[in-house]
Structures are given as structure tokens and as C-alpha cells.
Amino acid sequence: MTFKYPVAFLLFIIPLYYVYFYKKNENIVFAPFKISSLTEGLTPKTMKIMVQEHLYVLRALALTFLVFVIARPVSFEETQNAHTEGIDIAIALDISNSMMANDMIPNRLEAAKQTTRDFITQRKNDRIALVLFSGESFTLCPLTADHSILTQYIENIGNKRIMKDGTAIGMGLATAVNRLSNSEAKSKIIILLTDGMNNAGNIDPETALELAVRNNISVYTIGIGRMGRDFDDKLLHEIAKASGGKYFYAATNQELEGIYSLINRLEKTKLETQNQQFQNEEFRPFLLAAIFCLFAAFILRYGIIKSLS
């Protein structure tokens, strides 16, 4: 607790002067109650006299508490408001038959699923959508902040064939763009992972790229697999560069994990904190104490004292 007007403590001279003035004139004030000098030391004061003689203490205390009120005691409470500016992310995952190649452990698809799950668990403040593509594409999960349900969807990928085979990179990218096109997030990214060349679908990668650029979406492209290197390095690099993202290549599980870790560092969620200070007025206890002292003095003076003999 502190005081906004500490100079007001100079007013303490008022209750001090009141006590001084009262004690100086005590003999005059209580003249009617004094007894003769011959018997003064022998006869005790009555309760009425003693109470009235000490009423000045209550009045002096009331003045003292009022000085504290005038000095305006206050306390300060500080709060911290955190604002998170999340990133909307769409993950476009190739699930074509070639993703079952075992040049990664246990195969490309399972390696991609595991690293994608790990990545999602680190993006606690972001909304994430999941798009699957092979010869066509579809949205497995729209943008969601419920990462537990999203990881469950990923776990079930590959249990059964749900689309015709092929690699429709253009359609996979376009579907991911569509998931983010209505997003109001300041930062929107797509992670597109594939092991093949665009050989299917009715939307070419160049058209899908134009849609991404028009919607201010950065695309991070990842080519995986070391047997044959069937994916189109040039296309993936072009998509990443034109959209403001980056192109990566992973031949092993460890390299793929490192790529996701790098993307996680590059696309940091913004966390802003704002400190606010609130002022609490603390004069009320002093004011109540002053009122109590004055009220007690009034009751004693005009109530109880009159009833005493």
C-alpha cells in the first residue's frame, strides 16, 4: 500500500495540536467536576468524570484516521494478459501406393505419419487441417484446434484404399489452399509431402500454386524417399520459392524429423503479453475507523455519560 498525497501527513499537526490544547485546558474544561484541594487526593473520580475526560482520545483518533483518508491510500494490482496469434496450417500428405516403399522405416507413409503427429503436438496454439491425395484428393479433417482427434485420423491413414492410385500434386495443393482460403489468420502455411511426380488429377500444380500465392499462403514442400528419387525436385522447389516457403528433401526418418523441426522453428506462433495495472482505493477502512470513533464519542457523550452517576 502507498499514498498518493503523502504531503497530507503534515495535517497530523491537527490531532496533535488538539491533544495539546485539550490537555492544556483540562483544568478549565472539568472545573465543575473538581473537588477541593483538601480532599482531592482522597476521593476517587467517578466513572462519569473519567469517561468524559478521555473522550478527547476518540476525537483525536478520528482526526488521525481522517488524515490517512486525505492522504489517499492506494494499492496496485498487476495483471498480465496473453494474446496468442496462431497460424493456420494445412498438411497435404501423399498416400499413393509408392508411399509404401520401405526405404524408410517401416515405410515412407508410416514415417510421414509419425513425424506429422509429432509436429502437430508441438503446435498447441494453431489450427491444422489434413488433406490426403493420390490420384485424387480430399479433406480428411478441416481446420481444427482439437489436435487429439487429428492425430487419431492420422493413425488410421493407410488402413484401407480409399482413392485411386496416382500422384495428383495439383489437386492436393488446391484442396489444401481451399481449406485455408477463408481463414482470417495472419499467417497461413501448407506442408506438402510427396514421393512422386504429378501424373493425375484435373488441376495442374501451376494453377494450384497461383491459388496459393493469391491467398498469401506459404507452401513448404517435402520430397521423400531415396530409391529412384521419383519426385519432381524442380516442381517442388518452384512451388516453395514462388509462395515464400521452402523446399526440403528427406531420404531417412531422421532427416524428415529434422525438416519438421525446422519448419516448426521457422513458423513460430506469436505470443504477446500485455501488463495492466489496476489501482485499488484503500481509504475505506480509515474512513470507517474515523466514523466509528466519532460515533463512539457521540454515544458516550450524550448517551452513556448521562446515565452514569
Can you describe what's shown?
- The chain has 309 residues and is α/β, with parallel strands linked by helices.
- The protein folds into two domains: 2-78 and 277-307, no CATH class; 87-268, von Willebrand factor, type A domain (Rossmann fold).
- 43% of the residues lie in helices and 22% in strands.
- The protein is built from eleven helices and nine strands.
- The chain has helices at residues 13-24, 26-29, 47-53, 55-71, 108-121, 147-155, 169-180, 205-214, 233-243, 253-266, 284-307; strands spanning 2-3, 73-85, 88-94, 127-133, 137-144, 188-194, 218-224, 247-250, 270-281.
- It has a six-stranded mixed β-sheet, with helices on both faces.
- The longest helix has 24 residues, at 284-307.
- The chain is rod-shaped.
- The two termini are 46 Å apart.
- 30% of the residues are buried.
